[in-house]
Design goal:
Elements lengths: L8 H18 L2 H4 L4 H10 L5 H15 L4 H17 L3 H17 L3 H18 L2 H17 L3 H17 L5 H17 L3 H18 L2 H18 L2 H18 L2 H17 L3 H18 L2 H17 L3 H18 L2 H17 L3 H64 L3 H68 L5 H26 L5 E2 L1 H15 L8 E6 L4 E2 H22 L7 E9 L2 E8 L16 H13 L2 E5 L5 E7 L5
Helix pairs in contact: 3-4, 4-5, 4-6, 5-6, 6-7, 7-8, 8-9, 8-10, 9-10, 10-11, 10-12, 11-12, 12-13, 13-14, 14-15, 14-16, 15-16, 16-17, 16-18, 17-18, 18-19, 19-20, 20-21, 21-22, 21-23, 22-23, 23-24
Length: about 650
């Protein structure tokens, strides 16, 4: 997402530029070579006897610089700036301090607190008629709503900021670029790619027009993310390269590391593993220079993912171990959970099922802790928001009553001097107007409360559904692990095969619920990603690597609803398992093709292998096995048809009514 505008920081640093140069020249060598010369210089600067105005500016700059890695110190400096600015009636210093405190609350997930602080900042900026400060505050407030998923409210604030910029006599190109970028991301989250692209292009136009390198780099990065998300990887890499070139010139190491990591992800999508790892390595090196623990953990996790995708799971485990260690030392639970989950999958791919199970159990425990903390924080936020709104309504009601009482007193004094008939007429008219006004206000409040209640219930339903999928996924994973462990205790080969087949079917359902838990959609499944993941999992379970078997997929359908995806996934699992079990025993270069597309108003699934096939009229035992009986039962449920041919291998064609996939 577009990063918040560094409100006031550029201006403050410009005012202090000469002073900082003098300080840096006069400081001892160890200060100049510190991790952040700006922070070291300002701390040294504050040790001198300074006017209050200079102290306020220095406190605000320190609060901004420290926000990313020392929130406690950043909050302390921001509060010092706010206190001193109030004592000196410095509204600019107060506005900057509120901005810093709001940013810190936003980073910590205290959204109602952040919004309250940004509103105080906005009131000061409006009084000062500071166009840039107003625009940046609208941007920051919109980002708060974006984080909460309230995209309509976020867009309203972004457009307010944009409208304010366009109506201003002074052109604020950097602010316009940032607001267009934020609007683009929000529209993209709502699924409106065309409109989102228009605003990303506008952001790039205004950033170029402004000539500000940081703004241009951010706009190119936004365009790269847009194209990467849409699957246009070539254009994404071109935009990333433009962004990285600018960031290298201006020395923005943090931004450059993020761009390199995004470039690595794009190469990974293209299955260019060496190029991906080169970009990840460069990103990790920069993260180490700036001391970014989250970035280091993320980089090693990405590096491990690239090895895992290439089938080099031992190398992947090394990277996941480094990621987990860095995350654990820095207290980054999300990063630690991500590393442990990936580590468990690599253990499973290597056949070390006990380690896989224990590692996944550790990941699940951390995930539950994170989920519970997020739920508690959300409940506390809602309670604070409710209490605040309740107090505001009470204050508003008292003010309205006080205003009405004053108006009525003045009216009575005037009406006493008038004729009695006029007095009666005015009293009656006033009472009617007050009654109508109160009735209208009451109706509006009732409508707003009902709307908020509906929105709240929808969010709760989505959260409960996601939690249900999470629990089902975990239970299926435990069942699959138990079946895997049980298979090692059996001596009867037929019993072992039966248990493994059951494990395969459970894992097919597990993959669907895992996608439901992780993806934005909680009722639909992306079949392209699911089929690729299922192929990879089954091929590894039969001892095949990507080099041993040629797997091809062609999926062009829209995401399917769960009621269709689960039985269809079980059918695909049975057919793929049957191919690996029977078709490839004596084939030197096994091939398996899976296609899922729409044809003539129907959904068509085709699975073709290059095995010896089965002569017509002589069905294999598999045709009457439990697996095939299950396929026929599921097809009956879906009202589908199965057609098999055995020329140059086995070919299974399944057709389903398209109306059942909506």
């Amino acid at each position: 997402m577009t990063r918040p505008i560094t409100e006031g920081l550029v201006a403050a640093m410009r005012n202090k530029s000469i002073l900082l140069i003098v300080l840096l020249i006069g400081l001892p060598p160890f200060v100049v070579r510190g991790q952040n010369p700006v922070i070291d210089s300002l701390k040294h600067y504050l040790g001198n006897s300074l006017p209050d105005g200079d102290k306020i500016e220095a406190y605000n700059i320190l609060a901004w610089e420290l926000a990313d890695h020392d929130t406690s110190a950043a909050r302390s400096y921001a509060n010092k700036a706010l206190k001193l600015a109030r004592e000196n009636n410095d509204t600019t210093g107060q506005a900057l301090a509120y901005n810093r405190l709001g940013r810190l609350a936003y980073f910590q997930g205290s959204f109602s607190t952040a919004m309250d602080l940004y509103n105080k900042n906005l009131a000061l900026r409006l009084a000062q008629k500071d166009t840039s400060g107003i625009a940046s505050t609208y941007l920051n407030m919109g980002n708060v709503y974006n984080r909460q998923g309230e995209y309509a409210k976020a867009l309203d604030l972004f457009y307010k900021g944009l409208k304010f910029c366009e109506s201003s006599t002074s052109t604020i190109l950097r602010d316009q670029a940032s607001l267009h970028g934020a609007i683009g991301y929000t529209l993209l989250e709502q699924g409106n790619r065309d409109k989102g692209e228009e605003h990303f292009l506008q952001a790039l136009f205004y950033s170029k027009k402004s000539g500000i390198k940081e703004s241009m780099a951010s706009a190119y990065l936004d365009m790269g993310n847009f194209h990467a998300r849409g699957g246009d990887l070539k254009r994404a890499l071109a935009n990333y390269e433009d962004a990285s070139a600018i960031m290298e010139r201006i020395g923005d190491k943090t931004g450059l590391a993020a761009v390199w990591n995004s470039m690595g992800n794009t190469h990974l999508q293209k299955e260019e593993y060496k190029e991906a790892r080169l970009m990840y390595s460069k990103s990790i090196a920069l993260r180490k220079e700036v001391g970014d623990a989250h970035g280091i953990a993320l980089g090693h996790n990405s590096m491990g993912t690239s090895y895992a995708w290439e089938g080099l799971h031992k190398e992947a485990l090394t990277e996941f171990d480094i990621s987990a260690r860095v995350a654990r030392e820095a207290g980054l639970r999300d990063d630690l959970a991500r590393a442990l989950e990936n580590k468990s999958y690599s253990y499973e791919a290597l056949g070390e099922y006990k380690k896989a199970f224990l590692t996944y159990y550790s990941f699940d425990s951390i995930s539950n802790i994170i989920l519970n903390e997020a739920s508690n924080r959300h409940v506390n936020e809602l309670q604070v928001q409710y209490d605040t709104e309740k107090k505001e309504r009470q204050i508003e009601s008292l003010q309205q009553k006080e205003a009405l009482q004053k108006a009525e007193a003045q009216k009575r004094n005037t009406q006493i001097k008038a004729l009695i008939a006029g007095l009666v007429l005015f009293i009656g008219l006033g009472a009617a107007l007050v009654f109508a006004y109160r009735q209208k206000q009451k109706a509006n409040r009732l409508l707003n409360e009902q709307k908020l209640l509906v929105e709240k219930r929808e969010k709760e339903k989505e959260l409960l559904l996601r939690e249900l999928n999470h629990r089902v996924k975990n239970n299926l994973q435990v069942i699959a692990s138990m079946l895997s462990l049980q298979s090692f205790q059996l001596e009867d080969q037929k019993a072992v095969e039966a248990v493994k087949e059951g494990q395969s079917r459970v894992e097919a359902m597990f993959l669907i619920h895992e996608r439901l838990y992780r993806d934005d959609q909680v009722t639909h499944i992306d079949m392209d990603h699911y089929i690729k993941q299922l192929l990879s999992s089954i091929s590894y379970s039969f001892g095949y690597t990507e080099r041993d078997v040629k797997l091809q997929t062609e999926v062009t359908v829209e995401p399917l609803v769960v009621d269709i995806a689960i039985p269809l996934g079980l059918i695909i699992n049975e057919l793929i398992t049957n191919a690996f079990k029977h078709a490839f025993k004596e084939v030197k270069e096994p091939e398996l093709r899976v296609s899922l597309k729409e044809e003539e108003g129907q959904l068509k699934l085709t699975l073709l292998d290059n095995g010896p096939g089965i002569p017509e009229g002589k069905p294999d035992k598999a045709s009457i096995s439990f697996g095939m009986e299950m396929i026929r039962s599921l097809l009956k449920q879906l009202r589908g048809e199965l057609k098999t041919t055995y020329k140059s291998g086995s070919c299974f064609e399944i057709t389903l009514p398209l109306s059942r996939t909506a």
